[in-house]
Amino acid sequence: MRRKALVVEDDAVTRSLLRKLVEAQDCDVDEARDGLTAIELLDMNDYNVILLDIVLPKLSGTVVMDHLFVTNPALLERIIVVTGLNVEDIRKLFPTVCYALSKPVIPKRLMDSIHKCLRLPADEYLTSQ
Predict the structure, then answer these.
(1) What count of other Cβ atoms lies within 10 Å of the Cβ of residue 54?
(2) DSSP codes, 53-71
(3) What is the pTM (predicted TM-score) of this model?
(4) How big is the chain by its Cα radius of gyration, in Å?
(5) Which helix (H) or strand (E) holds 115?
(6) E-assigned strands of the chain?
(7) pLDDT tens digits, 71-118
(8) Which of 18, 93, 101, 109 is deepest in the core (most CB within 10 A)?
């Protein structure tokens, strides 16, 4: 069964790039341009990995994580924060997120983070590159 991912990013170019990187890990991908849409999708679907920007229209990524903390805290462990903000601050606020990466994101670092977050067996990861 294919894994499912959510990419939450307001910038269309960045969202498209993130989508392609996640699809390379054999995931079906949903997209959200803002925090409100992200919460709606998270309430309706189960995701194996979530790429989440912090600075978003309507509701911020931190509001999305606060929502998950209350409604489904296990999903916090599947989040990879991709942000232009200080990632150390994000890690302090939300220590259970899978990873926090600074923009501009290095594709190899993001792929490694996706792999670790999905907990793919090493041989499956290596063959998907």
Answers:
(1) 24
(2) -SS-SSS-HHHHHHHHHHH
(3) 0.86
(4) 13
(5) helix 107-118
(6) 3-8, 27-32, 49-52, 79-83, 99-102
(7) 998 888 889 999 887 888 878 877 778 788 888 888 888 888 888 887
(8) 18
